[in-house]
Design a protein that fits this description.
Number of domains: 1
Largest sheet: 3 strands, antiparallel
Helix content: 40-55%
CATH class: Mainly Alpha
Mean pLDDT: 86
Distance between the termini: 53 Å
Shape: globular
Number of helices: 10
Amino acid sequence: MTAGGALDPACAIDQRDLMFPIRDHNPSGRVAYVTYVLMALNIGIFLSYVPILSDDRALYEFYNSYALVPARIGEGYGFEGLFTSMFLHGGWMHLAGNMLFLWIFGDNVEEEMGHFKYLLFYLATGAAAGLTQVAIDPSSRIPMVGASGAIAGVMGAYLLLFPKAKVDILIIFIVFFRIFPIPAWIMLMLWFGMQFLGGLGSDPTAGGTAFWAHAGGFVAGLIGALPFWLKRGGVTFWQRTDGHPPHPETKYPRINSSRIPKVKRR
């Protein structure tokens, strides 16, 4: 989630990151209709206002109408922004980062919860994420946009339900890159820690990434997924599934051998 609109866009994958997930090894057993519809809505709505992306004044007015403005919540109105803001983004990278995370983690959570409950869960955790940022800076009039609070909720649920599922992490260092499969709990806890530390080190009155919305959405996702986890047996659910979705893992071809060609000196 971003505060400040196009004047300071941010995304789930920050451009300074040297490590981020690119895929998981856990196919869903049925079509994740809700996840795909949410992705289509986010992309379609963003494309609808691409023509005004270069016009800061017009874009700010658009965000001011449909984004989440914390001060309005404190004044008793503007609650619709908790939901409309989830489908707005501050730029191409903001959108791409969020959709990548939703594509990686959404399908398995949707399968476990069921389509309708997953949709309610997504909207509820997104609203909780927005309210967390409101609680941190209730007087702010900076518009907030982005799906990352709701997607953080999906990630929190994924952590509880499938902690040992494999996620491929792309590590980039200058011109070197390598892909490592790691357990989801490591990647997700690192991500949550980065949001928490980012929140501690940020100025909530300025624009930029709404770290507390990310952290709040993640915690809301953990709490919201508890009934599903407990209904399936809690710890015994982990023992039955070994912390993985109930499907054989996808095997990807090795690509780490595709390095930059070595050049011999003469």
